[in-house]
Design a protein that fits this description.
The protein is of the alpha+beta class. A hairpin with a 3-residue loop joins strand 2 and strand 3.
Length: about 325
């Protein structure tokens, strides 16, 4: 037992030493967050070192148990799982550090969103397909009673793939669609979209589903394949700038030039307006009223929504106070 406790003590000490070295490196290299992010691997590193050390020093313990082979196989399996855990944690830390450094170097929000989307999907693919599959296959091959099963599974991977492809066509289509979205730049995390008549922001993209946070904080979850097969609006595509519009149904006596001038005066005092363009035009005319469209440019979709609401309220209020006859009238007759 002395050997076991000594091995565990050395393992814990090695993990604490590793953590101290990372904190020291973080103080020396203040320009990068990678050492602090790599502190996440301390626990899986300790488990890996402990499992490997116990497996190597187990004969020295001379415990003479009835199932020595099984215990050593369990320790080896624990080492493999800890190694897979370590790789996943390290990959997450490196990806997050890469995204932070890229966000600091560039001012283009769309490129940062694209990189975040790609890194998120790539991490999920690496974790779920490579790490988990390799660890599971290695564990099967460790146990003599399961070695034949593990070899058979690996040898028949082609047949299993065909069967899985037929049985899970929708899942595979979503997986392929997720990869196409990640590297095709059609939609990214943070984009403002209109899907099924709902306006919101893309909050999360996984290998199977895409979540849109709607303006009222509801979440709309849809399969990723939807965005490769059906049309939708992406207001962030080609740049975040958006031109908002407001339609008003008014009377024929509306003083359009004065209303246009008041719109421009009002926009000059609004922080949402980016100053690129502003206009007011009569876009339609009927026997009972006219349709006036006010258009104003903003730097992003959120500002466009706020500014549209503010402009609509201001124009109706100004007309009601200064030109009430311009408001639409409902014709009525006394029989």
């Amino acid at each position: 037992m002395t050997v076991v406790f000594a091995t565990m003590a050395i393992t814990v000490s090695a993990g604490l030493l590793f953590d101290r070295l990372l904190r020291y490196s973080a103080r020396r290299r203040s320009g990068t967050q990678l050492p602090l992010l790599l502190r996440r691997v301390q626990l899986p590193l300790q488990v890996l070192l402990g499992a490997v050390a116990l497996h190597a020093t187990y004969p020295l313990a001379e415990l003479e148990l009835r199932h020595d082979a099984v215990i050593r196989n369990i320790l080896a399996s624990a080492a493999i799982l800890a190694a897979a855990w370590l790789v996943a944690r390290a990959a997450d830390a490196v990806a997050e550090n890469l995204l932070r450094r890229y966000a600091e170097r560039t001012s283009e929000i769309s490129r940062v969103r694209q990189l975040r989307t790609q890194l998120g999907l790539v991490r999920r693919v690496v974790t779920s397909v490579l790490v988990v599959t390799t660890a599971a296959a290695a564990i099967l091959l460790l146990f003599p009673s399961l070695r034949t099963l593990g070899t058979s599974l690996l040898a028949s991977a082609g047949v299993i793939g065909i069967i899985a492809g037929v049985a899970a066509q929708s899942t595979l289509s979503n997986l392929v669609a997720g990869l196409q979205i990640a590297f095709g730049d059609s939609v990214k995390i943070g984009d403002t979209v209109v899907v099924e008549g709902e306006w919101g922001t893309v909050e999360e993209i996984t290998l199977a589903f895409l979540t849109v946070r709607i303006w009222d904080d509801r979440r709309l979850t849809m399969p990723v394949s939807y965005f490769n097969s059906k049309p939708y609006e992406n207001w962030s595509r080609g740049g975040p700038q958006v031109t908002g519009t407001v339609l008003l149904h008014l009377d024929h006596s509306t003083p359009v030039p004065l209303l246009r001038e008041h719109l421009r005066d009002f926009l000059r005092g609004r922080s949402e307006w980016d100053g690129r363009s502003a206009n007011l035009l009569v876009t339609d005319c009927t026997p009972t009223n006219i349709v006036v469209r006010a258009a104003m440019s903003t730097s992003n979709a959120d500002d466009a929504w706020d500014l549209r609401c503010a402009v609509r309220e201001e124009l109706l209020d100004w007309l009601g106070r200064h030109h009430p006859s311009a408001l639409p009238k409902i014709p009525a007759s006394i029989v």
